[in-house]
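Worked example 2:
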Amino acid sequence: MLILLLINETDTRKYCFLPAASTVPRTVLTTTNALSLKGCYVPCALNANCQACSYNASTKKCTLLGPLAPANSCSEPYTIYEKRTTGCTDFPLADSNTSYTLSKCCNASDVIGPPALRRVTPVCGNATGFLRRVAYDTILHDGTRWVLENHRESFIDWDEKLGSWYYSNGVAVYYFYMATCVKVPAVQTCGCAALSTELPMAGYTTTGAAVEMEQAPPLCNGGQVQYVMSGAARSIYCAMGFTWMHMIDNGTWYNEWAVTAATCVAKIP
């Protein structure tokens, strides 16, 4: 289960989970992977139908539970964690890169380390120098690995109710298990899936120039990338076999964001 949501970050910071023993079964909503108990809290907090969760530490499985099903009863009490908005105790701040495991797509020398502060943008700091490729290497609560962009509006913060860090780029929010900033290797051993193209927008036509490449600027042989006025000072690169990144770095302005498609276009005369 990928914890990626287009939400207001404050929507999730009102819930906590308190242990309770019960002999009354509940409706099972779904079962997912979770590296820890906190990884069970997160999907339940983000699911309006989830009222509680249970966690099996040996199998690392989380079960999201709905309403009580009192027609039956359990022979033995079982432990659940009920979703509450009162009686909560805040989790103390923890390191965001605790137990970080190195990706097979980078080297130990590529690891920069965690962000120094909360809510400081961009999450891995501004680039210094031309064509600096930096990404936020992330392991989500379900064990999925994701490479997130060092967008100018990106930051991390601590959810004290759920005991989890989360990343935001101003649009999407990712709750994660651990993460750190990494310099994307210049020579990569992991390749991304082919970058898709898209139909040209109204008033434009495709030029046929290649855009999927690990190249120095400009993109599109100096032409225009779809929805971008110019390919100057821009590059598209594969970030450690996971995500295609579109980066602009002209020495004074730096930004990057993930892309799923790119096309070189020219305005129709």
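The longest strand covers residues 173-183. The chain has a mean pLDDT of 84.
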